[in-house]
Protein 1
Amino acid sequence: MNEDELSKMNGSPPDEPEPDLLASLVPAKVADSLDGDEVAAEDQPAFSRRQFLTSLAVMGAAVGLGSQLVKTPAASAATTTTATQPAQATSRTRATLPQWTMIMDLRYCNGCNDCTTACQYTHVLPKDITWIKVYEMSNPDGQSYYLPRLCQMCEDPPCQAVCPVGATFRNDEGIVLIDQNVCIGCRTCMAACPYESRYFNTEPMPTVPKQPFPPSPEWPVPQQMNTVGKCVLCAADLSKGMLPSCAQACGMGVIYLGDLTSDVAVNSQGNAVKLSQFVKENDAVHLKEELGTNPRVWYIPGHGQDWKDSY
Amino acid sequence: MSRMTTYERLPQDDPERQKLREAAIRPMVQKPGRGYKLLVGVLGILVILALVAFYLQIVDGRSVDAYSNEAFWGLFIANFITIVGASYGGAVVSAVLRLVGATWRAPLVRIAEATAVATVIVGGAAIIPSVGVPGRMWEFIARPNFSSPLIWDALAIGTYAFASIVFFFLPVIPDLAVAKETMGDRAGKTRTTIWRWLSCRWNGSGRQEKLLGRMMTILAIMIIPLAVSVHSVLGWAFANTSFRPWWSEELWAPLFVIAALYSGIANVILSLAALRHAYHLEDYITERHFKSLGLLMLPFGAAYLYMEVADFLPGSYHGEPGTAAVFKQLFVGSYAPWFWLFIVMGIVVPILIVSMRRTRKIGWIVLAAGFVVPTFWLNRFLMVAVPATYDMINGSFGTYAWTWENIAITLGSVAAVPLILLLIFRVVPILSVTEMENMEMESLAQEAEALMHAGNGNGNGYVQREKALEGTYRPGATDEFEEEDDFARGEEEE
Ligand code: SF4
Ligand code: SF4
């Protein structure tokens, strides 16, 4: 990632971090868990899971090296080092595989669009294709708030059901992906997705610099023209212990990557939380729960949203 | 009894018959005039332009024809629904008239069925420019996902297209023999070869005729549920796949079926009028046919209007945010002029025209049909594009842009229909001579009686339920004859 851009993205620390959030910042614990592979399981189950170590290591490095809340370019270098560790996901059975989720803490979103820019930069997308898009929404009382929308990684994805050729699928880690070598570009999935998460690549893609991986559903870079694409939760990076690029880029720590299996969620600010507890205590909701798509992305309201405008 | 072919049973030198046969082969022998050449030239250019535009959008991406992420479905889907819908009219009109034994159908079934074939071919092709990577469409067969409505769509349309082609083709077979006999030397080599291929060793024996008649009855019965299913599945391709407002309506399948019937009949009226004028078929295709078809449009138009109200009223009344936003766009928003244009010109005015005796004339009815066909295309476009441009997160509407490419493809697909029709009638008689002669034969009471009593029936086994022979192109049938006909049929069925 372009370093200037990255530091620009990460340049704005939260204005007024909530005290309880600060209390739950855990660099020390992270360091612990890095040293010994196992940590006392009962009180801190969150940090005892192997599959989450690497992503915590990212944050540990970030916090340790920068000795401040924001990740510096140096930290991003550390990220790359961590990424060279062998992926641990290979020998696991499905039950112990991570099940990725996201939590969007809307209380801190200031609508800066850094996530969108970072995502477009990482996946080499043209301007109008926004796999994560920050909507400005308005409350009935006239105030506005921001709603970053990405693929909700539905557990019952309607987009998968309607794909006539089975190009859309859900992998073992709960990530909904598109095989662009199969997709015929009929856009039925765009009709089906109630979250506007999908994008049709109407134009030739910009030229793409050399990529760490060949194009695959997990890393669909470059995108294929005339097929459909969407957020892939940076699936190829997750196994290397990296946060998705939007989460990395969010200087406000809005975007948490979570894992249902280990019940942990972390954001770019080194804030690691127990997922189930965090979600419950903050009254997190899914978008359009009534549609039965069982999304995996939580939103923590905090601006008096009444969610009436979920269409 | 030694069998004669149908046309041998009739007096050979009857001038009426000669006239009919000449009329039926007129498109093949008529010297192409300047108008004809001009027409074919223009249509051909339009089709070629469409192909060029199609190529461009494959190379340059779908943005060249207005697809954006604000409007992921649009024009081509509307074209597809409209053209396939037009086919419905021809097939079902012909099938229903066959089944109820309406004898007046004889002169128009060929044109109706040919229209059905031409439109189903073009309609099926019209979906291709909408698909992002047409080269991968074989995956529909190679790796179908049967939970997708689109697979059922493809299956239904494929089956229906096949059935309607057979339905068109079967009654053509005996006519080829007639054409061959009438044309004589004028036929030319190519045409003779094609006929030999197409005629499937037809020799006009009674057995063959009986088989053919039975096949036609079975097909006529089959084609109705097939067509209903095609248009229902089309509606469900929206209603099932999507949570979008207005698309996710239970009413969409019947709405599609009725719309297809209504606009399909209008389409038949238009092609009847055009071909009648071009090939001077005024003696055979008469005002009566237009009146009957116009009256047939009436209930479907009324039903459609009723269902529109049933569709819109609940949504606008309790006003869920999405549905309300879409309906508002339609009623008073930026699409309102088009929507009301459709309601008035597509439904109200045509219904008025055909329901008033004073305007129930050929010209007026053709005018009404001329209103219906394009406004129903407009209606489909609104049905597709308005919900598609709606943003399900913040409730805003995207815009739909027009480009020359998508207009070219649309015009090209419209132009392809008459082009295929003209091509078909270069090979196939434009009137179903055999059928008309069969009907005529019935009206020649004497001869018919003799043949019936000999146990042949009229040889073609068509179900004859309707008594009234009124309106055949050759008046003169009597009630006594009708009774004979019934009697004969009774024998035949034993
Ligand atoms: S959010 Fe949309 S694209 Fe993502 S899984 Fe759900 S339906 Fe599919
Ligand atoms: S556009 Fe591609 S992924 Fe979407 S439904 Fe069609 S084939 Fe499937």
Protein 2
Amino acid sequence: MLALLRSKKPQILERWIQHQLTLDTLRDDLISNDELREQSEGIVNLIVDQISEQTLALDPYALEPILEYLSGIAISRARHGFSPRETSFYLFSLKNAMLDMLAESAGSDIAALYDMTRSLGRFFDELSTSTFETFIKGREEVILRQTDEIAEISTPVIRVWDQILAMPLIGTLDSARTQVVMENLLQAIVDTGSEIAILDISGVPAVDSLVAQHLIKTVSATRLMGAECIISGIRPEIAQTVVQLGIDLSQVITKATLASALKSAFSMLKLEVRKTQSQKPFLI
Amino acid sequence: MLVVLNKDAFQIQREQDVILFRNRVKEFAVRIGMGVVNQTKLITAASELVRNMLRYASGGEVLIEVITRGRENGIRLTFKDQGPGIPDIKLAMQDGYSTGRSLGLGLPGTKRLVSEFDIKSTVGVGTTVTIVKWKNG
Ligand SMILES: Nc1ncnc2c1ncn2[C@@H]1O[C@H](COP(=O)(O)OP(=O)(O)O)[C@@H](O)[C@H]1O
Ligand SMILES: [Mg+2]
């Protein structure tokens, strides 16, 4: 039976491609027919060449080259936006093509055909389970990359006034993110020659001891640069929690709102904001 | 009598799980109508313990339970790891004690933030920390 499969390699490929073109999981928007054919040919070549008693018995050593090749394809499909369902059906339709070939050529040996069908079934179950796992890993990588990108874009430094910078922090401050925040802030202080930096934590959901440590570190680094750092946006529930946790923020200038932080920044720079005396009369 | 109304287990394996886990705790707290101050205290305590688990025991499992006793509803969290364990719990519970060069406020601070706190640890076996935050506690 294995020899039969090997001798029918070109027919299996044709049959498989025919199958795929009729499936509603075909995505000709994501992959061209030529590319699909090339990818499919690679898989058929590999699977039909490698199929043996060992691979059908799911011997891990024998399966490895196949799984490795398929995981490459699964990852590339994940990146291209194929759904797991589409990738599973892609493989299952190869199984069907192989079974069709066997049924047509196996003759009357029903018992042998049944055995082979079961073995192929198990073999493909293994392949698709493993491809599925790889697929998920591929997606997770995408998510991790996006997390990094979000960390980059969500830490803007805003020049709110001459010599005053503000940095709204949104989300959680983990170690990696703090690094980005600190670098951006210190660089901006140098670039703009600012005297005061306001870190606004209104968008930070919780301040635990790690986040507090990162905030304190950022404040010290700012001071080392010769600038002053104010932490604003401390909501009442955060203030209570931080105190009970035992964190000492006495060395840090803290304000409830960005507006009050700005106000004290003005007074530190000896700036004054006031209404002008001579109001122009309204013309109605 | 204490009754468990609802529960959920959560695996902690990597840094990214911290945020997902905290969001899950928050969902439970919101569902029982916990106010924002107690919610924040609970989430912060949970954050401390889950970070300890990742840092000192390379992960573990947390059980989230909605519990009720008499007229009080609350959330109970059980953090269980198979890490190295804590040789001297009394020392670890002191403000400022840290083997990880951090603030050393995680365990003692958590105890102050919650209504009930229990820690059990066996060297070479692992650590289990259980906290309860009552809705109005
Ligand atoms: N799950 C744990 N497994 C082993 N050791 C722990 C665990 N949690 C805490 N510890 C020990 O207790 C010490 C104090 O913990 P903690 O109060 O959270 O402060 P910190 O995390 O800043 O060190 C840690 O430095 C560590 O030695
Ligand atoms: Mg800690």
